[in-house]
């Protein structure tokens, strides 16, 4: 049975050694965020996740959510855990202190979130969706809406949901049919059916605040006619308490491959009273702000589940006695050696490590830039951070969730037949991780967002902060002999990335199918180069410190970096070749021949 | 909801056009196997699978097997389906006519088996394991054992199981503790616990014939002291009917990620009466013959499930209306275009196709050589076929099951959120397919078998038939201008394969960890080259026939071949690079740092 432990040592490494904690503390609003405070917070929240959330992970998966007469009951223990979670303030790490939030940097919150997902993916979705809803209201809601909804949502007494998808539309929200009709008091009556609504209905909170995409009768067609509305499950009384039911009902819950303890609901709105958030017909804009925030969060889900799977695999590889090392018995007194002696098992574990630690480093960089983009005093610097985030959001969402599935499948494979058995917990990681490649925009859509939208926008402006950072780092280390084994392949892969970027930019102008065709491979290549950059930086720190205390930790960084450069980065060569081949044979394939 | 249809057109192509049906008919014993007969058989068995097995696939997954007081009940409908299945003789396609079998070539049976797995993976395991058991008894059993057991097993009134794994040993069967103590009548009393026993107990047949690995008290340690025993669930009366219970009980069944309708049992043997199969202490040999046969079958499972997933994905991609083609609306009168217009969706579908059809062709070649190895009059030709099969068995098992997972995950991704919902059936393919990478020897073990055992054996003799076939084909087509776009990359990838084979052979002699480290990548590279060879052959046929009737079918072969060469084969470049990097950084990683 898997036993997840917060990877505190590596989180500290990322926060204190790879990033610059002083730069975070220097940002207005974060003056009190000292490394010691961050450390204490990660330790405490980690402990809560290990002790309170993790024990509910398997039982929640087996029990699932219950649906009866429109009511959804979460699995046993979820209510109590949610109460404790909110009491510790874990539900409001980054929320505005004005409404009762902790006001922490995203960089810190991201690390805490990883632990929540690692300990209990399904559970993390209840506060996760609320955070997204809070975010939208903070950014786009009127003062009245903020004052009415945020205090209870930040406290956790009310939760939030995001109602986008309808049975006939997911990716293409322009097809949305849910109607909103304005009333004399400037409120709206919202009518329609939404599906795949995470935490649309449940028993954890007194009220649920739905953020609903809908169109007014005279709205323009397509996505230009979509508006965003707040629709509470229970109406809000004059005194701010929850009142009567508001025409919102849960029609059913889905039976899914995984995240069984998370209620995925069909939500029916029937003349439900709602309130416009932001401007009329500008709902997609507000939605995208929220979704961009969510997308980093979804990437983190992939990371959390991957770490949990890795830990389970390592434990098994140490304990399972089977066969002998190829070079001769390692434990001749025992009947067999632990399977950790086998190169192929080590290859699997190091693949997991290299992807997990590389992704943690990359995600932390993106979170750090998010903090910059919100809190830095210099507008130019904020703008630059915005550009970087625009580029990296689809990369983090898609690549880190692809890795979530890849890594959790590897973990399961390490256990062999035992990995396929439910009670050992490893197959649940695979089933849970799988959704993250799909929701909040499938990974194919992320790739198209990257290459079709972010790459060409403003003549490539979004690309610059990342490309310049890698290029400058390569120049800076050019004379460092110790780093040569990393520098040369990084420079080579980066060169390939630059070249294919130029090729695709040109081809895309003539034929947009060239962009669509290359997008998934391009996203992966960019991510692999970004991880190589992070791994070289981590190796650099490792080389400086592998003689002192904790030498083993730093040596492992160097060795894992070597593994990454030798065994994973070469994929960029194949990706370059496939992208160069273009879209012709795929697009000319006869539709009827499929 | 997925609706599987037997891919008859492509099966006919493989059997009649890619292979040589006359060469099969020329083999002694197969004189009556005309293409028309094969065609009728595939059509009929396909119809049965579509109409009788497929409807039980989802319901069987939801219901699962039931365990009560040592009895296992299969899901509703399985008993009736099994009866019909045996009445049609589908359970005994390749069995010896002497015992009531159909005596069909493996090449034909393999295609029929694909359909069974595509329609209902779990169901196919009940007759599948019986076939393996029959195979062992046919090859190693005494005349008495054959006459006692085979007629009822071939008829399907009795089923079979293979009892290898124990709680503390799976891969390393030398650790097996189950005991067999000889009795005065030369029978044995078998005592021990076996786990992960597919179809160890169920309600489909009157009796279950277990083939059990065990050791006698004075047997040598390790795998040299393992013997194989027949242990029937019910003793056999003098008149050949099933009699009293025989000390074999089912202790429990596993709850698994998938194949829920297949009973995976813990089997307890308590002084159960058994009979030696083959020679004492030579059980592993008999087991390997059976397992090699099973391993091709497991590869076919990956193929069947992949085809089913592909069909579901194509159907959805045609029907789902969402967004617009990047090059402008394809169906301007509708609100949106089908998602089939998107390059990334087509990329996913063509990846599925290229892997499925390539694997079908490769598996058919292996099955054909199996027929040769059993029935060809010339011993030298039989020996050559044996060598080819020895090499290709691990490749087919591991690569085709890796593709089973890869392809079914792609299929699920095409459906987006709808793919994650159980009722749509696509996620079941992913869960079912996953086991095939694990059982009958994990894919890591297959890779080690290929590179550590098959490659060096007899100075590379096993490699020759495959390497020569590819080399000769390349020489033969060297001057064919039309095939140039396939020939050049095939020759290049083949060159890489030859080179890395030589490098690894040399390195492996000095350090066996070099073999273990490269094995998984090597197996994939060899499989990718083997598929390239098949795809070039298929493209060649396509080019000859793409102007006649059925032009679309042949043109699709050419186009899919192009896709394979452009988009999948380039992986061999990256694999070459990773293998060249050797084992040093992986093996020197500190065990305690994991």
From TrEMBL, chains A, B:
Its cofactor is FAD. Residues 467-589 form the Acetyl-CoA dehydrogenase-like C-terminal domain. Residues 281-449 form the Acyl-CoA dehydrogenase/oxidase C-terminal domain. The keyword Oxidoreductase applies. It comes from endosymbiont of Galathealinum brachiosum. Residues 40-156 form the Acyl-CoA dehydrogenase/oxidase N-terminal domain. Keywords: FAD, Flavoprotein, Oxidoreductase. Belongs to the acyl-CoA dehydrogenase family. Transmembrane segments: none annotated. This is 3-methylmercaptopropionyl-CoA dehydrogenase.
């Amino acid at each position: 049975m898997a036993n997840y432990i917060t990877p505190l040592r590596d989180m500290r490494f990322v926060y204190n050694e790879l990033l610059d904690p002083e730069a975070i503390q220097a940002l207005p609003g974060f003056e009190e965020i000292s490394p010691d405070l961050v450390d204490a917070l990660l330790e405490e929240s980690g402990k809560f996740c290990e002790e309170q959330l993790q024990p509910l992970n398997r039982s929640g998966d087996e029990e699932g959510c219950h649906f009866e007469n429109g009511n959804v009951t979460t699995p046993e223990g979820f209510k109590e855990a949610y109460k404790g979670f909110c009491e510790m303030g874990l539900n409001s790490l980054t929320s505005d202190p004005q409404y009762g939030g902790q006001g922490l940097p995203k960089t810190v919150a991201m690390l805490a979130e990883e632990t929540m997902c690692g300990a209990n993916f399904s559970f993390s979705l209840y506060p996760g969706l609320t955070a997204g809803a809070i975010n939208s209201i903070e950014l786009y809601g009127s003062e009245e809406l903020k004052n009415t909804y945020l205090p209870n949502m930040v406290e956790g007494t009310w939760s939030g949901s995001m109602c986008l998808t309808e049975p006939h539309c997911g990716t293409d929200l322009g097809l949305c049919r849910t109607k909103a009709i304005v009333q004399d008091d400037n409120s709206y009556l919202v009518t329609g059916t939404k599906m795949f609504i995470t935490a649309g209905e449940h028993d954890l909170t007194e009220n649920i605040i739905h953020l609903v995409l809908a169109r007014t009768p005279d709205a323009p067609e397509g996505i230009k006619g979509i508006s965003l509305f707040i629709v509470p499950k229970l109406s809000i009384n004059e005194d701010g308490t929850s009142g009567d039911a508001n025409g919102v009902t849960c029609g059913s819950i889905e039976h899914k491959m995984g995240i069984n303890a998370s209620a995925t609901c069909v939500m029916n709105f029937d003349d439900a009273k709602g309130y416009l958030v932001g401007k009329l017909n500008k709902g997609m804009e507000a939605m995208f702000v929220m979704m961009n925030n969510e997308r980093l969060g979804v990437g983190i889900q992939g990371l959390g589940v991957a770490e949990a799977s890795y830990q389970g695999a390592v434990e098994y590889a140490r304990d399972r006695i089977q066969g002998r090392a190829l070079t001769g018995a390692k434990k001749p007194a025992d009947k067999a050696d632990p399977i950790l002696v086998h190169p192929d098992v080590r290859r699997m574990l190091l693949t997991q490590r290299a992807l997990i630690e590389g992704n943690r480093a990359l995600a932390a960089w993106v979170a750090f830039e998010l903090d910059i983009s919100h809190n830095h005093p210099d507008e130019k610097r904020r703008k630059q951070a915005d550009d970087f985030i625009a580029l990296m959001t689809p990369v983090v969402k898609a690549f880190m969730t692809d890795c979530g599935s890849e890594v959790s499948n590897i973990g399961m494979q390490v256990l062999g037949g035992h990995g396929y058995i439910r009670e050992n917990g490893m197959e649940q990681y695979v089933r849970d991780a799988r959704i993250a490649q799909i929701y909040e925009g499938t990974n194919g859509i992320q790739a198209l967002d990257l290459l079709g939208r972010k790459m060409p926008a403003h003549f490539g402006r979004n690309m610059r902060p990342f490309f310049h950072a890698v290029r400058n780092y390569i120049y800076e280390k050019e004379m460092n002999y110790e780093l040569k084994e990393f520098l040369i392949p990084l420079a080579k892969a980066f060169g390939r990335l630059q070249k294919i970027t130029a090729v695709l930019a040109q081809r895309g102008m003539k034929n947009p199918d060239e962009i669509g065709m290359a997008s998934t491979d391009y996203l992966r290549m960019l991510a692999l180069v970004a991880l190589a950059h992070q791994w070289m930086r981590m190796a650099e720190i490792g080389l400086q410190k592998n003689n002192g205390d904790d030498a083993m930790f730093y040596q492992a960084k160097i060795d894992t970096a070597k593994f990454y450069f030798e065994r994973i980065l070469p994929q960029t060569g194949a990706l370059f070749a496939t992208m160069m081949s273009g879209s012709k044979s795929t697009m000319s394939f006869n539709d009827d021949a499929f």
